[in-house]
Amino acid sequence: MAEFVFNDVIRSKSGEYFLRTANSIYQHRVISSFFRNGTLLDSQNREYDTNLSEETLLDLTRGFHEEKKSEVKSLLDLSEKLKQAKQPETKNLLGLAFMRKGMFNEAIDEFEDAIVLDPENSIIYNNLGNAYIEVERLEEAIDVLEKAILLSPDFADLHNNLGRAYLKMSQCKNAVGAFEKAISINTYYPDAYYNLALAYILNAHTREDFALSVDCYTKVMEYMEKAARINPNFKNEYFERGEEFLRRNEYLSAYQEFEKGYGSGAQTNDMSFILDFYLRVIHSGKKLRSSMIWRHIRRLEALLKKYPNYADLYNHLGVAYVIMSKIVNNKAIQLFDQAMKINPNFEKAKRNKRLAEYDHKGIQLLFDAILK
Q1: Is residue 113 part of a domain?
Q2: Is residue 44 part of a domain?
């Protein structure tokens, strides 16, 4: 079977990017890789049936390439379009979208702008701290996460991410304290248990604190097992190799294996479609189509059947219905106008339009509050 390759340079005011998409005849996947200055930012793939004809495979590869190119260009265009916007939540959404593409410096720009507009928002500080960690700006990450903790001391994610920054700086004792605080707030936090175990392993290697290194194997495996009970995906091939190195007191090798295991096993319920939906709503303006919103609603409802106790999903579903009600309300006003165009003396239509316009003000206020 033939190999097909598509290349594109994507230019914007923030820089130049390179997108390469090709089918792998060995993996039976179409793989799209996204680079900046020779550094891989993101890679996505799609499996394909080995029985496809070459013409169909060519179309599939080309289509996947165009899809990924469109995603990046739309994101860069939207960022430029909203450069001067005074909407912290929109900038936060853009930052998250850039993070998902591996475009961490672009994400940082959005989060920093958002914080200037909303300096009391601990969620934005958390996102900025994560982005700083990704580009190894660790002291800045610690600074913004500590500010966020002052705003929201009971937000477990903030303490976990603060611990991650300390861990990357090999400040194991500080990392242990941060992860323990995260667990005290949320006793069902698998990532914090796993990270706490990593901190103990790294401390045993660096010998930063003797007290933490005592009975290292027992403590590490206790926390690893707790993490795996909550998130069984943590029990993987790297977990087993990490435990074997740990038994032999080969702490650096154990740390490296367990670190790989974290990347492989961390929960990755793909909620990216929610972020994409919000960005499309912002970008589309008055061109929103009800069919797009209904598809989004059905997807959220399907996820709620799978995760019935996930509060965020109920919130996102409520937002979707608010957006749908805005479209329905606009359509209603248009229909009342059409009725009065045919019969200018149609009093019932006039009354109904006034009622719809009254509702429209409330819906618009809610819509703006949610998305701005």
Answers
A1: no
A2: yes
Predicted pLDDT at 201: 97
Gyration radius from the chain CA atoms? 25
Q: Residue 357: inside a domain, yes or no?
A: yes
Q: What is the pLDDT of residue 304?
A: 85
Q: Give the pLDDT of residue 74.
A: 82
Q: Please compute the mean of the pLDDT values over residues 187-202 and round it to a whole number.
A: 95
Count structural domains, the chain.
2
Instruction: Kindly report, residue by residue over 223-250, the tens digit of the pLDDT.
Output: 999 999 988 889 999 999 999 999 999 9
Residue at a domain's end among 46, 69, 92: 69
Q: How far is CA 246 from CA 30, 67, 173, in A?
A: 38, 44, 19
Helix (H, G, I), strand (E, B) or coil at 334: helix
57 is in which domain, residue-wise?
A: 5-69
Q: What is the pLDDT of residues 297-348, one digit of tens each?
A: 998 898 888 778 666 678 788 888 888 888 888 888 889 899 999 999 999 8
**CA 280 to CA 75: how far, in whole Å?**
10
The last residue of one of the domains, among 25, 52, 69, is 69
Residue pair 310/304 in contact (Cβ under 8 Å)? The answer is: yes
The Cα–Cα gap between 188 and 176 comes to 17
Question: Please, which residues have CB within 8 angstroms of residue 91's CB and are 6 or more apart in sequence?
Answer: 82, 85, 110, 111, 113, 114, 117
Q: If you write DSSP's letter for every residue of 189-243 in order, what string do you get?
A: -HHHHHHHHHHHHHHHHHT--HHHHTTHHHHHHHHHHHHHHH-GGGSSHHHHHHH
For 101, list phi and psi in degrees, rounded to 5: -90, 0
**Quick check: is 271 in a domain?**
no
Assign residue 21 a region: left if phi > 0, alpha if psi is -120 to 50, beta otherwise? beta
